[in-house]
Amino acid sequence: MNQQQDRQANEKSGQQNEEQNKEQTTLQAITALLRDLLTEFVALARRGLRWANRLPMPQLLSLAIGVALLLTILPLALTLFMVFLVIKVLLLCSVLATRKARQRGTRLEFSRPAESVMAGKDEGV
């Protein structure tokens, strides 16, 4: 009986060791991948800086203006895209709610705060 418990304990510890090795191996693989990615990015940046260093001044100026335009227009375009996407989704929700109400035979009514305030003033006069 004692030997059987020892075997079970050894099997459990072996399974735990395998899981730890898998986790460690995965972590090592991710770390190695990130290290390679960083090394390649640094090499690319160095190559780009060497290339920019050899450019004549007018071309360097035009390159700088182009990069500046890219960095300002790209976020603007993405922001406008997101704004119009949100507007589109809101309009779609409104249309779907209206259609659903028509199918049920009811009518969507929204209270208007300005009318309720005006109605209160008229009653008091």
Helix percentage range: over 70%
Q: Would you tell me the structural class of the helices and strands?
A: mainly alpha
Largest sheet: none
Gap from first CA to last CA:
98 Å
The fraction of residues in strands falls at under 5%
Mean pLDDT across every amino acid position: 82
Q: What are the secondary-structure elements, in order, as H or E? A: HHH
Number of helical segments with 4 or more residues: 3
Shape: flat
- Total count of strands: 0
Q: Radius of gyration, rounded?
A: 33 Å
Low-confidence stretches: none
Explain what the structure shows.
The longest helix is centred in the N-terminal third of the chain and has 52 residues, at 2-53. This protein is 90% helix and 0% strand. It starts with a helix and ends with a helix. The mean pLDDT is 82. With 125 residues, it is an all-alpha fold. The protein is flat, with a radius of gyration of 33 Å. The protein has helices spanning 2-53, 57-104, 113-124.
Key descriptive features of the protein:
125 residues; mainly alpha; 3 helices
Secondary structure layout plus pairing:
Elements: H1 2-53, H2 57-104, H3 113-124
